[in-house]
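Batch job 17 of 40 flagged for manual review because the log was empty.
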Amino acid sequence: MSFPIPAGACDTHMHFYDSAIAAAPDTPMPGHFDVPMYREIQRRLGIERVIIDCRRDRRWALARSGSIAGASRELKIDHSTVSRRLAAIEQSLGATLVIRGSKEFAWTAEGDCALRAAQAIETQMLDMLRTIRSAKLEIGGSIRITCPSGLVALLAKLLHDINTRLPSLAVEVSGDNRTVDLARGDADIAVRMFRPTAPGLVCRRACDLGWGAYASRAYIARHGNPATIGDLAEHHLVLYIEAMHTVPGPRWIEDHRRGARAVTRVDNTEVARHLIAASGGIGVIPCFMADLHPDLVRIFPEPVATHTAWIVYHEAARDTARVRAAVDALVEVIEANETTFSGQHRKSRS
């Protein structure tokens, strides 16, 4: 028997058969469960494929009725069908599960062991499903947000506004310049400086990030301020390693160095900011990292480069209430501080 697989269900294959679902054998997606719920189970179990076959009524009918005939009446199927299915289970386990009598049967030691194990598994599954259903509907618990390390300080300042909007949700923010695996559950939400193309991820625009050219006040006092972009070649420049040249800010200063020989290369914006503030040269860093720094001055009035930041989460969490609420709150807070992120409308020097 075959049936169409819903979009997004490529790694997870689950059947929950229940007498309450009229077309159980022919219905791959019972109404109580959907692909996001399956994927959440998959993520929590930490496995690539989940195969669950819960013929609950059939299994417990044998235990409740104490006989094959009683089970067949309860399930409204022929007793020979019950016998065949029981025999198939025994064959797959390589053990006799019941001692058949004229009217009733008794569980063997192996059968009793299998029954207790099955009951324990079902209890765990039902507990997990209740937890998942609750997570889909209730805004509570904790939410983990990851972002580039250079963004942590600003997001931490905005946490108060997020907590005000979501008092029942504990928000955790961590800085990580690696691309964390949202499908594996390394975080619930990621703020990324690029729009990911990996399948299974939901992207929502956060804001435009402006990059400015900066130097320290002490550096300008000693070396002067470049009047034009072409004058940058006469100064010591703080550049980035090649791996960062796809990012608009690092790309801009690389394109405009014009043969400058006095350069220092760094591998992240935090190191660049510290080096620039220590009079190590002129460099390009995100405006939100520099505009409030008392020792840093913009070389040119407007941002020299801009790119879009994205809020990203896994499609399995699309219908989870706490994730939806956190994403909405994060977008609202970022939009309320749009000029801080964009770096627009600010004087260059004072």
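Reviewer: the log was empty due to a logging misconfiguration, but the result itself is present. The chain has three domains: 12-137, 141-205+318-336, 208-306. Unflagging and moving on to job 18.
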